[in-house]
Amino acid sequence: MIIGNLFSIFTNKLKPKLKDTSKHQGLRNLLAKQLEAKGITDKNVLSAIGKIPRHLFLNSSFEDYAYQDKAFPIGAGQTISQPYTVAFQSQLLEIKKGHKILEIGTGSGYQTAVLFAMGAIVYSIERQNELFKQTSTLLPKLGIRPKHLSFGDGYKGLPNHAPFDSIIVTAGAPIIPKPLMAQLKIGGRLVIPVGAENQIMTLLIRKNETQFEKHEFGDFKFVPLLEDKN
User: Fold this and answer.
1) Would you list the DSSP string of 95-148?
2) Catalytic residue among 8, 47, 81, 90
3) Global pTM?
4) What's the rounded mean pLDDT across residues 206-225?
5) Does position 209 have pLDDT exceeding 50, yes or no?
6) Is 150 a catalytic residue?
7) Residues 6 or more apart in contact with residue 60 via CB below 8 angstroms
8) Exposure string over 188-206, b if 16+ CB within 10 A, otherwise e
């Protein structure tokens, strides 16, 4: 598995366009320190941010800016979230090695890679076929192998693979989809930005078959979660 030794494998074995250098590693280390200063305390999250080469998930024109704490366009009207947002959502999940995680919105695959580096077994859905194809090709090249990647409607989740220890939604939803709530294990955590223009980062913890504990963590801004209307 590549994640355990990303630097040497990237620099020695990948094609030039996928090259990872000591400069990139240094920038990742600085980014992890910046996120820690901003309040990210989960060492597993910070370690994953320090391992995953974010520049490889962006158009090459953004490479010089890849380790700034900013969001960037990735095509199909979507964005790669800023690293703080990725880290914040990942921290709320409280991932332990072997946790079964459902990600709604694969996007560039960066959040997927972070979850994988944290030891999660990742299932992911992407609504944009263009991004789904790109990510399905890229992740294996980086040695990042989610358990399941699919093209489909994130509002519906993956009922055939449920239940999940946690679910993360990486796009803004006007409501919390009930199918996702139903696919959580008892004690499971659903992290989702809720709202139309701006979103409130929301955490639901499933207490039993019918009850959920709700926590809110302030304003964020995401692209909208797209629903299949057919």
Assistant:
1) --TT-EEEEE--TTSHHHHHHHHTT-EEEEEES-HHHHHHHHHHHHHTT---SE
2) 81
3) 0.90
4) 92
5) yes
6) no
7) 17
8) bbbbbbbbeeebebbbbbb
